[in-house]
Specification:
By secondary structure, the protein is an alpha+beta fold. It folds into two domains: 71 residues, 2-Layer Sandwich (Ribosomal Protein S8, Chain: A, domain 1), CATH 3.30.1370.10; 96 residues, K Homology domain, type 1 (Ribosomal Protein S8, Chain: A, domain 1, 2-Layer Sandwich), CATH 3.30.1370.10. It has nine helices and six strands, in the order E-H-H-E-E-H-H-E-H-H-H-E-E-H-H. The chain has a three-stranded antiparallel β-sheet with strand order 1-3-2, with helices on one face. Strands 4-6-5 form a three-stranded antiparallel β-sheet. Strand 2 and strand 3 form a beta hairpin. The longest helix is centred in the last third of the chain and has 22 residues.
Length: 174
């Protein structure tokens, strides 16, 4: 049996929409129980528990269930940066989240479009779901922003990493 704590907000969403839990139970061949305000218990075989825990953790970090479900396959991974741990200061964390999201969500959207990774800025974290290369590209942009770099520099670094990865994929096929 695995246990996982998620925010009470996300646990309430799961309690409200029982179909999310049922479909996840079916997908991972396990039983999922929400205890109290934020504790989730997962009971099944080792792989099913592991898969469900990863999906629920990603869901708890702000991804929708459809995106989080991609973690069942071998092609997708999850990564997260705890901005609160890096900066500590609530005002600075808020500023960094705003830089990552950008005006009208444009920065986040651009990072997702170029890298192919999905981003979630939730609580004090920014999280990623994608292939290893997609996550690395997206993290390149986000880390540049967190280090105080301009958006232009963040985009340039990400785009260069993207071009490099495309060249390597192309060369590997020939």
């Amino acid at each position: 049996m695995e246990q996982l704590y998620i925010t009470s907000e996300k646990a309430k969403e799961l309690k409200r929409d029982k179909s999310l839990v049922k479909s996840l139970e079916h997908l991972c061949s396990c039983k999922i129980t929400i205890e109290g305000d934020d504790l989730i218990q997962i009971d099944g075989d080792a792989y099913g528990e592991f898969s469900a825990k990863g999906i629920l953790f990603a869901y708890g970090r702000g991804f929708n269930m459809d995106t989080a479900r991609k973690l069942v396959g071998d092609e997708y991974y999850f990564s997260s940066i705890d901005i609160g741990q890096v900066f500590g200061n609530e005002k600075r964390v808020h500023q960094m989240k705003a830089r990552i999201i950008g005006e009208g969500g444009r920065t986040k959207t651009y990072i997702e479009e170029v890298s192919g990774a999905k981003l979630s800025v939730y609580g004090d974290t920014v999280s990623f779901i994608g292939s290893i290369t997609q996550i690395n590209e997206a993290e390149t942009a986000v880390n540049t922003l967190l280090e105080g770099g301009t958006h232009k520099l963040a985009y340039a670094r990400m785009e260069e990493a993207h071009r490099k990865n495309k060249r390597q994929q192309h060369d590997a096929h020939f």
